[in-house]
Amino acid sequence: MRLRRASEIFFDEPYRLPDILVGGGAPPECALTAAGGGRTVASLTTRHLVAALEGRCMSALRDCLEAGELDLRPTLVRLDYVAPVPFHVLRLTAWADHVEDGSATFSARAHDGESGLCEVTIALEVVRAEATTGRDWPARVRAAA
After folding, report:
1. What is the pTM of this model?
2. N or C: the chain end with fewer CB closer than 10 Å?
3. Are 85 and 118 in contact (CB under 8 A)?
4. How many whole angstroms separate alpha carbon 85 and alpha carbon 15?
């Protein structure tokens, strides 16, 4: 892994729901949270927020992989804080906290531009080609090696 490049990772960007999740201008029920009394409010579930933050951190770190490094896998996701997040004002912010050969830890937030609504720590580990030798990996992973 290109350590210097990985240690400089930072992003702060608006989050847009993937087109597949958007139907009629609002997220599907699986991405909505219950408000109680059978009502639903247009805010994202914790599961969706954590997946969005983890996916964006993985995408940023993939740009730092070197030859022989196939992909990344999450080894830790620690949820520090969560509050209802209106999906129409969501921003994702993250930075590399700790980077060493083969792994990186990120601090990440989903927020509305002012207050933090979801804060997580995400640890990612590099999957190296030599670690896949002799295993029955899916064709897509074998082809990348």
Report:
1. 0.75
2. C
3. yes
4. 12
The structure tokens listed for 131 are 């670690």
User: What region does 102 belong to: left with phi over 0, alpha with psi -120 to 50, or beta?
Assistant: left
CA distances from 90 to 81, 95, 119, 127, 144 (A): 15, 17, 13, 31, 34
Gyration radius of the chain over CA positions: 17
Nearest to 11, CA basis, from 61, 71, 45: 61
Amino acid sitting at position 17: L
Q: Rounded to whole angstroms, how far apart are CA atoms 142 and 55?
A: 22
Burial class of 25 by CB neighbour count within 10 A (0 to 12, 13 to 18, 19+): exposed
Lateral strand order in the sheet of 69-82:
10-14, 91-100, 103-111, 116-128, 69-82
Per-residue pLDDT of the chain (145 residues; tens, 9 = 90+): 999 999 999 999 998 776 545 555 555 544 555 555 555 555 677 788 888 899 999 999 999 999 889 999 999 999 887 776 666 678 899 999 999 989 999 999 988 887 777 889 999 999 987 765 555 555 555 455 4
